[in-house]
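PROTEIN DESIGN WORKSHEET
SECTION A - STRUCTURE
LENGTH: 610
TOKENS:
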């Protein structure tokens, strides 16, 4: 069975660890601090909030003055001791022990100015103060800036809303216990603390009401209806307190003496005598301590579940970002090669259809290449006029005897040269697709994001390889076109009809062989042959491009890079693994957060809370 001190001390230790790592609470979800039960002290200015806290502690230690004095949350952790000297410690001064509580008050004021400046601004970064004393109960309270309706000189107009937002962020949490402090000489319906508590805790399950300044009420009036829950009902009892008067404060009346005087007031009061056993700051402290312990005990299972879930999420995120790298050259080389393999895997997925993009290569062959071949100017090149010109020039001074073979060859050669353009365009188009897939793969390789220099090096090496593959592809497709021109398919021409034109006179002179019908037949024959070659190239150009560019990219995209990296020294490898500062910062933050949550889990496991 856990003791009250062990459970509250457990939360205290976790809160301190949270603060060190920048988890201040008061924000949205996903915070360990926000999951921890705590008592948030809420009240308007001049509600007596500071006096209540000093009565609970039994010491003067809070700054006083006009306007907004509390400008940062004060996490007040009370530790009951069995005797000895009372002392205080600040989390931001871990090795300094304060026995003079006037010095505690001064340090609170000085540290507030250090954090917020002297402009009366506010900050959500808490001051953590631990007080060790035989006169306190084990309890943790969060003193929040007093709610106000007007800004004082030197403060922005938004200060009123800023304070309310800060206070609301603490009391809005389902694990927050609200200590709502209201002065008795003010209508409870208009109390700033009760109005806010009613908004965030309409059922009153989390709210404790405190009524101060009972001794300052007009003669003939009392707050019994409030204290007995008739004016405003809460699920927990109202507690009345009587703080020291200003005269007592000026005279530095001892706080323990003030506690006794408070009890005497209630016991002797005709209005409150029947409630005296559950009135006063001392009773309030015990009530809160017992309730806080019960809430902590009830919430621990859900806190453990939240911690375990968060630990799993952080470790998964660290795996995604990548763990820290060893400092030796072997570990660095292994990391670089592992990053290369990860990139290569993503690149192949793009090509093979596991990721989008590779289908664009097929689009080049199925749409772009046929469209380009279709647009070649064969109609113009094989027009009657051009056929006559080429045949005549090929015959020279002596006209051909039977068939204008030289003319045929010239027409075919010049026609085949047109195929170079679409062939090279296909190579370039696929090259652009592959470059885009490299860019996409670099961006999609999560492991590489932490290494911008390595990203650039891999991208440069991949693109350099693609340039080589493009040159090989270009040479190959041009060779295919040149091969068609090097050796014509004789069988095609042997199968052509050899009958003379109907109606033609075979005894006409040679010049008559250039008649239109004859030339049209030559143009038609050449066009048919070019069409056959076109069909062939439509099939062989894609084969050559895939073989020289796509297949090589799949097999050997980073081969030269591997050899290059293997010859580098440790210093050069370290430079390649120069991480993105943003990712390094994020990983360091996650590592610290993981340590915090694991430490919190160990702390909880060390306490027998069941």
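SECTION B - SEQUENCE
RESIDUE ASSIGNMENT:
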């Amino acid at each position: 069975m856990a003791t009250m001190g062990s459970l509250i001390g457990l939360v205290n230790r976790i809160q301190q660890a949270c603060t060190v790592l920048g988890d201040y609470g008061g924000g949205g979800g996903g915070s360990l601090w926000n999951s921890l039960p705590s008592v948030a002290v809420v009240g308007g200015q001049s509600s007596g909030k500071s006096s209540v806290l000093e009565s609970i502690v039994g010491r003067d230690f809070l700054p006083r003055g006009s306007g907004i004095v509390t400008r940062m949350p004060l996490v007040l952790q009370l530790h009951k001791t069995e005797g000895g000297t009372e002392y205080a410690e600040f989390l931001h001064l871990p090795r300094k022990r304060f026995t003079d509580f006037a010095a505690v008050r001064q340090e609170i004021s000085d540290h507030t100015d250090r954090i917020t400046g002297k402009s009366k601004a506010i900050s959500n970064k808490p001051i953590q103060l631990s007080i060790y004393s035989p006169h306190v109960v084990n309890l943790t309270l969060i003193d929040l800036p007093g709610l106000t309706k007007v800004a004082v000189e030197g403060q922005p107009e938004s200060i009123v809303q800023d304070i309310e937002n800060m206070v609301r962020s603490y009391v809005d949490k389902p694990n927050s216990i609200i200590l709502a402090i209201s002065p008795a000489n003010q209508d409870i319906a208009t109390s700033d603390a009760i109005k806010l508590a009613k908004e965030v805790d309409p059922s009153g399950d989390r709210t404790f009401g405190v009524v101060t300044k009972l001794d300052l009420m007009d003669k003939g009036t009392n707050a019994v209806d409030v204290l007995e829950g008739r004016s405003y009902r809460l699920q927990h009892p109202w507690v009345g307190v009587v703080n020291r008067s200003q005269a007592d404060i000026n005279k530095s009346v001892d706080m323990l003496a003030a506690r006794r005087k408070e009890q005497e007031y209630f016991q002797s009061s005709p209005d409150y005598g029947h409630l005296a056993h559950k009135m006063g700051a001392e009773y309030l402290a015990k009530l809160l301590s017992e309730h806080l312990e019960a809430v902590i005990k009830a919430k621990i299972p859900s806190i453990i579940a939240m911690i375990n879930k968060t630990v799993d999420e952080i470790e998964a995120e660290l795996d995604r970002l990548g763990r820290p790298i060893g400092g030796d050259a072997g570990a660095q080389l292994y990391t670089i090669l592992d990053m290369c393999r990860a990139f290569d895997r993503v690149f192949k997925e793009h090509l093979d259809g596991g990721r989008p993009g590779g289908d664009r290569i097929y689009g080049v062959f199925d749409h772009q290449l046929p469209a380009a071949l279709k647009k070649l100017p064969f109609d113009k090149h094989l027009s009657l006029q051009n056929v006559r010109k080429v045949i005549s020039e090929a015959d020279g001074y002596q006209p051909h005897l039977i068939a204008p073979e030289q003319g045929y060859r010239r027409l075919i050669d010049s026609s085949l040269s047109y195929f170079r353009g679409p062939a090279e365009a296909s190579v370039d188009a696929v090259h652009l697709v592959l470059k885009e897939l490299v860019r996409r793969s670099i961006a999609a390789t999560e492991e590489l994001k932490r290494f911008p220099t390595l990203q650039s090096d891999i991208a440069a090496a991949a693109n350099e390889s693609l340039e080589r593959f493009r040159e090989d592809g270009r040479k190959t497709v041009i060779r295919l076109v040149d091969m068609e021109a090097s050796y014509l398919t004789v069988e095609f021409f042997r199968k052509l009809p050899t009958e003379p034109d109907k109606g033609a006179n075979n005894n006409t002179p040679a010049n008559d062989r250039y008649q239109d019908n004859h030339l049209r037949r030559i143009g038609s024959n050449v066009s048919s042959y070019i069409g056959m070659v076109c069909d062939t190239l439509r099939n062989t150009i894609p084969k050559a491009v895939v073989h020289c560019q796509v297949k090589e990219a799949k097999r050997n995209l980073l081969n030269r890079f591997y050899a290059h990296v293997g010859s580098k020294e440790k210093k050069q490898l370290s430079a390649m693994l120069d991480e993105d500062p943003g990712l390094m910062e994020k990983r360091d933050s996650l590592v610290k957060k993981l340590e915090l949550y694991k430490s919190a889990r160990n702390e909880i496991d060390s306490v027998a809370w069941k």
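SECTION C - NOTES
The radius of gyration is 44 Å.
Confidence is low (pLDDT under 50) at residues 508-512.
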